[in-house]
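pls ignore typos typing on phone
magnesium ion + seq
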Amino acid sequence: MRCVGSDARSRGGSAGLPAAGRPAAGRPAAGRPAAGRPAAGRPAAGSEDDVLRRVSQVVLAVASQRSTRDVLQMIVRSARSLVKARYAALGVPDDRGSFAEFLVDGIPERQRADIGPLPRQHGMLGVLLHEKKPMRIADIRADPRFEGWPPGHPDMSDFLGAPIRDGSDVLGIIFAACKRGPGGFSERDEQLLGLFASHAAIALTSARLYQRGRELSVLEERARLARELHDAVSQKLFSIRARVRAAEVLVWRDPGRAVAEMESVAVLSGQAHAELRAVIDGLAPPDLTAGGLAASLRSYAVLAGRTYGAEVTFHAAPRLPALGAQRETAVYRVAQEALHNALRHSGATTIRMSLSATRRKVVLQVTDRGRGFAADAPAGGLGMASMRERAASAGGTLTVRSAPGEGASVRLELPA
Ligand SMILES: Nc1ncnc2c1ncn2[C@@H]1O[C@H](COP(=O)(O)OP(=O)(O)OP(=O)(O)O)[C@@H](O)[C@H]1O
Ligand SMILES: [Mg+2]
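k done
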């Protein structure tokens, strides 16, 4: 069966493509594999050299940074040329029964607009998608599964299609219609189309991986921000709440102390604001930039102890090696969280915090003798995960020791 011209019309549902390919100048007689007769310095269309040239162009495009759409368009164009079809198309299905991407070669833009919306995933395209096998048909219109052409669609007879597969997943389909010249599509055409389908599979898989990578980094960034906000601001908000409660109780009994509590609420909320700013701007904690690690931890210990009505002792080795801003931030944040956990959860009245150093390492330790907890059980909050994450990203180790009734100790070791 021969393909009918691009101006023929019929009615119906779905199948393929649009039309009107012009034979390229210097092309050998249609339907016969050309014997390498070069036209204007290029290998003759369909010759072994031409196949090699086009395939290698596609391989280079797949490996390059070009957009997936451009690469797929090049694949459709090369496939159409090599199998000597009037039309070719490549479709990537979406999950709503249509195509997320549908690239056509061989139909002028004008005519494409006449055909209207993208095809649906039924008719022969649906068969190709679901059967996951190549399809070579002399007259598509004679197939019982054919559902007709939409208005404006060129009439087609011979059809060659291949699924674009990644293992058993079908990522898309590529197909050609209307072989130029007699005899319809050959076994070799089928192999060539299969080759382009596998290149398209690589292009689509790497685009998916790239997309997934980006999604993962968005998720990671979101988790990082949640940790930053937790570490930087939520403890301060806890403290503010505790102080407001205290002021509530004191306001009638001891107005002077209530005023003092409210003053520290003002200080703490100023600090929370500064911390929030630092998180937003991606900076180190403001305390740390102002006074160095040991001094900041000392004043933090005093402030936190006062807020919770507990005694927090702090000892620092006289000489500590410089750790650099990023690792000092990690130590500071771990200390804050460990201290707050002890203050909020342990019920202990005394908490010890220390910063010591040997030639090889710096060690932060926060210990309480409170009610303890099952340290190997999964933690419900963000704090434990955040401490571990910070220890790891600073190249250190975090050890949490605790058992019910036996207090708790958090130890962070960083190589000096
Ligand atoms: N020093 C401690 N003494 C007793 N229990 C503790 C101590 N440290 C942690 N825990 C227990 O471990 C749990 C998990 O701690 P984690 O810091 O991950 O979460 P959180 O403090 O409850 O909430 P968040 O830190 O997200 O505000 C706590 O809820 C608490 O039950
Ligand atoms: Mg916590």
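The mean pLDDT is 85. The domain at 291-416 is CATH 3.30.565.10 (Heat Shock Protein 90). more later
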